[in-house]
From TrEMBL:
Gene3D superfamilies linked: 3.30.230.10
Keyword tags: Elongation factor, Protein biosynthesis
GO MF annotation: an example: translation elongation factor activity
Lineage, uppermost ranks: Eukaryota, Metazoa, Ecdysozoa, Arthropoda, Crustacea
Region (Disordered): 1-27
InterPro entries noted in UniProt: Ribosomal_Su5_D2-typ_SF (IPR020568), Ribsml_uS5_D2-typ_fold_subgr (IPR014721)
Descriptive protein name: Elongation factor 2
Length: 68
């Protein structure tokens, strides 16, 4: 199943401003998200897509832990 959660305050603005993009290096993006938005480091590395149309200020993140 899927669960929707609000993003941290300011993250949508940073995505729209181009500070966080799907083309960023995943490790660089992880560092930025962890330092500025207290994102979990593992979750930050598991961002599947931005949306809508791969550029918007919505994220689909795989936050599963230990699923087999």
């Amino acid at each position: 199943y899927m669960k929707a959660m609000p993003m941290p305050d300011g993250l949508a603005d940073d995505i729209e401003a181009g500070k966080v993009t799907p083309r960023d290096d995943p490790k660089t993006r992880k560092t930025y998200l962890c330092e500025n938005f207290q994102f979990d480091a593992t979750d930050a590395m598991k961002i599947w897509t931005f949306g809508p149309e791969s550029t918007g200020a919505n994220l689909l993140v795989d936050v599963t832990k230990g699923v087999q």
